[in-house]
Amino acid sequence: MSRKLYLLLIPVVICVVSITLTCHAKEIYDLPGAQADPDFAVQGEYVGEGALPEMAQGKIGAQVIAQGGGKFRVVVYQGGLPGDGWKREDPRIVLEGTAEELKSDKLSGKIADGSLSIADADGKRTAKLARTDRKSPTLGAKPPAGAVVIFDGTNLDKFEPVDGHLTEDKLLLSGVTTKPEYNSYKLHLEFRLSWMPEARGQGRSNSGLYLHDCYECQVLDSFGLEGENNECGGFYQISKPIVNMCLPPMTWQTYDVDFTAPKYEDGKKTANARVVLKHNGVVIHDFEPPRGTPGRKPEGPGPRGIHLQGHGNHVLYRNVWLEPK
Q1: Of 245, 234, 252, which Cα lies nearest the Cα of 317?
Q2: Which alpha helices (H) appear in 49-181, and where do they start and end?
Q3: What is the pLDDT of residues 140-168, one digit of tens each?
Q4: Among positive and negative, which fits the CA dihedral 290, 295, 301, 304?
Q5: Where along the chain do its domains lie?
Q6: d(Cα 235, Cα 308) in Å, to the nearest integer?
Q7: Which of 38, 155, 207, 263 is found 20 to 30 A from 250 (Cα to Cα)?
Q8: What's 166's DSSP letter?
Q9: pLDDT at 2 over 90
């Protein structure tokens, strides 16, 4: 084999290995099954007071991400958790290791009995954070008078014909499209991501919300990540969220969307769509998509359906309704 051909094959082999590892990652989408993993009780969000290297005393947040096999990645935020004090430009420090021994260049940490203890390079404790369970303020929101109930657990009448997408406990499995009856609206939906600690990137509980069947807002387990346009809350290839508001997997989360459809005259677009989107109660987008995203239909006039993407994972939805505008 020539050296040139060998070098060309390297990225292909790496890609295949990556896809294989992702495809074989175990997925658990029932809460008792996830709770049976001892790492489940450790992962999550922690808050407290303290000081980080070269930073003032104050509020500190941390997100503990399970990586499988007792390994964790911990992101420590100066100022509090994302959406509750910390902003993109604020400092953060990443530790990695086991619950008993977490390390970074500047800090060490340990998680035990629902607390995360952080120490400086000299081993002096600088902060102690307690585990917390944040919930969206719009979780369980009831449809107001005049709203259209898309899904309440009773039937799939508002969707294009599809089989096998209503679970035994009356939840909606991703991979469905509403009948194309909607143009501009305010939309509420709730989703739950699977427990997949061994998976990475796009293989970690993947779905997507397609507004107007052409603008995809990612639904993905991106807890503790940067918050890019291909992560949870991002409009794929177009816009990343203002802040990553993804909560831990197996937590019910919300999207509340104020969507204005694009305008067309004589087959030509005369005004962009507009999206104001709240993830777990926090505004993460207020913008006009300049174009559609890949995967579904091209931009066009409405009315159109809303698509909840099936991507090989068991992402679950409930309490879906909208108010036409």
Answers
A1: 252
A2: none
A3: 999 999 999 999 999 999 999 988 899 99
A4: negative
A5: 31-132, 148-324
A6: 14
A7: 155
A8: B
A9: no
DSSP 8-state code for residue 238: T
Q: Are 53 and 76 in contact (CB under 8 A)?
A: no
Tell me which residue has tokens 């991400």: 65
CA distances from 309 to 5, 131, 176, 188, 228 (A): 37, 32, 7, 16, 19
Structure tokens at 316: 């679950």
More confident residue, 257 or 3: 257
Cβ neighbours of 298 (radius 10 Å): 9
Place of tokens 């807890």: 223
What homologous superfamily is domain 148-324 in, according to CATH? Answer: Exo-inulinase; domain 1 (2.60.120.560)
Of the candidates 154, 208, 167, 161, the one whose C-alpha atom is nearest the C-alpha of residue 321 is: 154
Instruction: Report the length, in residues, of the chain.
Output: 325
CATH architecture of the region 31-132: Beta Barrel (2.40)
The CA distance from 302 to 219, in Å, is 23
Q: How do beta strands 85-86 and 81-82 pair?
A: parallel
From CA 269, how far away is CA 262, in angstroms rounded? Answer: 7
